[in-house]
Amino acid sequence: MRLFGTIVFVWAVFTSSAWSAPDPVEARPTLSGRELGTSYAAPRRVTVLGYTGHMLDPFVSRDGRYVLFSNKGSGRDLHYAVRKEPDTFIYKGRLSSLNVQGLAGMPTIDWRGALYFISAKAIGAAGAAIYRTNFVGGTTSRALFVEGDFGGRGRFNMDVEISADGGTLYVSRAVKTWFQAAPRQSNIVLAMRTGSHRFQLVPEGETIMAQINTNDLEYGPSVSPDETIIFFTRSTPRAFQKKSSEGNGIYVAVRDTLDVPFSDVTLLSALKGFVGSPALADRGCSLYYHRNDPDFYSVYRSVRQDCQAEIERPISRRRDVILIPHD
Question: How far apart are CA 87 and CA 280, in angstroms?
Answer without folding.
Answer: 14
